[in-house]
TrEMBL record:
This is DivIVA domain-containing protein. InterPro entries: CHP03543 (IPR019932), DivIVA_domain (IPR019933). It comes from Orlajensenia leifsoniae. It comes from the Bacteria.
Length: 182
């Protein structure tokens, strides 16, 4: 019986144990391999999802481990890129990505992202716009915001709200920039 992570509470759903173990084994091999032939990158870790099962691994513990793993892969990728392109090129690319994000966030409130139909739920426009203001202050004024703040941002559902996929892509890009300049 594996004890890599604590189990979800009795009768409660958690992440599928076999899937988590298989992913961690694959990540271990990828991290230990030559970085020039990487089969896994930080972005792959961020987009990983597992099925749920009763008595599976605690989602909180697995998610925290995945965040640390993503950070480790991102640091390795950044170090490798800095060796190849140099500091100036690396930070230039990060600034360009940050500017693209800011261009999106500078749109008028209520119009920053596509909206779902009135019959479909999306993210609360007010919640996303409020968080967008924090992100803008982070990029423009150095407002204190952490990668975890972005990763754990939660928005209420709203009929006719912002399209979740668009918001999530921007948040992923914010994480990429934050990890790039750490």
């Amino acid at each position: 019986m594996s004890t890599t992570f604590p189990r979800a509470g009795r009768g409660k759903p958690g992440y599928n144990v076999d899937q988590v173990e298989a992913f961690l084994a694959e990540a271990r091999v990828a991290y230990d391999s030559d970085p020039t032939t990487a089969t896994m990158v930080a972005d792959d870790i961020r987009r990983t999802a597992f099925s749920m099962q009763k008595g599976g691994y605690s989602t909180q513990h697995v998610d925290a481990a995945l965040e640390r793993l993503e950070d480790a892969f991102a640091a390795r990728e950044r170090d490798r890129a800095l060796q190849g392109a140099g500091n100036e090129e690396w930070y230039r690319e990060a600034r360009q990505t940050a500017q693209v994000i800011l261009n999106r966030l500078d749109r008028e409130k209520g119009h920053r992202f596509q909206r779902t139909s009135i019959l479909t739920e999306g993210y609360s426009v007010a919640d996303v716009d409020k968080f967008a203001a924090k992100l803008t202050r982070y990029f423009q004024d150095g407002y204190a915001l952490t990668v975890d703040d972005v990763r754990t941002a939660v928005f209420r559902p709203q009929r006719g709200g912002y399209r979740e996929a668009q918001v999530d892509i921007v948040l992923d890009s914010v994480v990429d920039v934050m990890l790039a300049v750490r």
